[in-house]
Amino acid sequence: MNTTFIFTYPWWFLLFCLSVGALFSYLLYGKRKFIFTENEPKGWKYGLAALRFFSTSLIAFLLLSVLIKTKHTEEEKPVILFLQDNSASLNTSFGKTSKAQYAKDIDALQAKLKDKYEVIAYNFGAQIKPYQNPNYTEQETDISTAFDELYMQNGSRNIGAVILATDGIYNKGNSPLYNKNILAAPIYTIALGDTLVKKDAFIKSVKYPDIVYLGDQFSLNIQIEANHLQGQNTTLEVTAPDGKVLLNKVITINSDHFNLQTEVIGDANKPGVLPFHIRLKTITGETITENNYDVAYVEVLDGRQKIILLYDAPHPDIKALKNAIEQNKNYQIEVSDIKSATLNYKDADLIILDGLPSNGAASKISLLQEIVNAATPILFIVSSNANIAQLNMLQKIVQFPATAANGNDVVPIYSAAFSKFSLTENTLKTISGLPPLLSPFGKYQTAATADILFKQQIGTIPTDQPLILFNEVNGKKSGFICGEGIWRWRINEYAQTKKTEATDEVINKSIQYLTVKGDKRRFRVHTPKTIFNANEPISIDAELYNESYELVNDVDANCIIKEQSGKEYKYTFDKTTNAYTLNAGILPVGNYTIQAKAEYKGKINAAVSNFTVRKVLLETLQLQANHHLLQQLSNQSGGKLYYPQNLQQLIADIEKNNSIKTVLYQTFSTQPLIDKKWLFFIILLLLSTEWFIRKYKGNI
Q1: Which of 103, 238, 365, 487 could lock onto 320 through a cystine, CB 3.0 to 4.6 A?
Q2: Nearest Cα to Cα of residue 185 among 208, 212, 206, 164
Q3: Into which CATH architecture does domain 78-184+626-661 fall?
């Protein structure tokens, strides 16, 4: 630590301070002879003068606003980041070194490096985690994301080197060779696994639709591969949920690198999640047999919901709405110009009126009146084409002023009081940054029963004006998007994120609310999807309603998750703002039933739901290590490739790398000298000493 003084005045002001101290001392003690008796030594007088000189000079010096500049020097040892692949692909082809010995060698490697460097170790599969002795159970490998996480967590550190221990096989994410977030440090790779192609016959892929509809037929496209098993026979069997054998085919493997694709037709004969079992008979000598079996889980829905979108004039919002709605396979949307429409709106589950009623479709006002009076839910898109006067006559939920023909650019503000459905935090954040919608000008009159999702912000001024709202009276649901420009939301979001998830979520959640038939159950439980992968945590939501069908959560809610075999898992829901949620963690593969209960005002409310956890086989589909990838990673970063038996050489090479060195960081801080409390005590000591001597030795 080094300290210097900074003067805000010329140096000769120091002489002025000394002069002030000297003058004050002279005036006090040079002229006044009556302070001490004649017999008292003059040394006391000179001592008191010196005390006054120093205290006065110091006070004057402090008044010059002197600053203290302090230099701090800190050392940061080089950081060595160690990444250990913990994926299941290493179970079957680990190389010449045993797993137990390898674990000991890695522990010794880290211990040796810690003598000179700071070592931070991780395991990784789909994502990185703090290091533990690997058990090789991760079902996905994403090397690129692992580098991303390293960059975010350690990008500002003095990174000396990255040690990557893996077989080079990745089945998720992009190639790490093209990752832009790789740290500017040499990557030393430890090549695990075996580059030899192993004897194995396996189901490489099963392609099928996740969702089909009751009564439909669908195809299962199955791809079979076999390596180094030429001349062998196996059997491919596909079984329907009811036990019916859909395919029993003998396959003759006629090459060392055999590939076969076949198609099987399945029937969606009942609603729910239907498991179709695919089995490949085991051949003697196979390296692994887990990849000889797979299950295709097909969700069968009872029927599509029909949506009709009517318009008067073409508008980019129409295509944006159609594309967003079509993301959900449960919806079937038909788009038509109202002037030529021949659709039977009475069998629709939802009607969307874009810019209607309008001047261009004035002759269709009676048809629109019929639609509005019917029980079918309606979503109004209030665009600049709309005839505001006729719109006000058709419905009483939102009344627009006569000046509404003009428009305001407005951005959405989420209404925390909204209760019809919820949006993710990411969606709310994204939507708030999208371009404004063009909304009718003026003060709206909104029905008391309306529930506002988004309010309007005009410029920087938030308002209570609704932008998107919903209403339900006597079972009739209605929605309003009071503005146009949804297409800008999708385009802008895609430009920012390469996705349209936020915009599509707003649209589809709105559609879902409007199309869902009234559910009078007081207690409900559901999962975001019915099929989870084996490496996914299971999330469950629940809602409890009081007598007025208002959400409440002032009592505990519990559930039992029961596996088909009979094993049970017991949980208590966590409370959210007005509902319940549960993260049940990762569960074994199987079919599960959720039995939830909540006691409210002496009554037991129960709810049941189902979900399936399916096996993930990515780590068993490729067993041949990709050491070429590791060599490329090392070469492009200035590192080197090693094998498990050469770890001592890895340590030596890191120690010899002159670029891996301690970094000195210098920081400077500045503060006024007057802020130093010890100076106050020095001044106080000088003045107190002077006062005490004068009091004790003479008269004041």
Answers
A1: 487
A2: 164
A3: 3-Layer(aba) Sandwich (3.40)
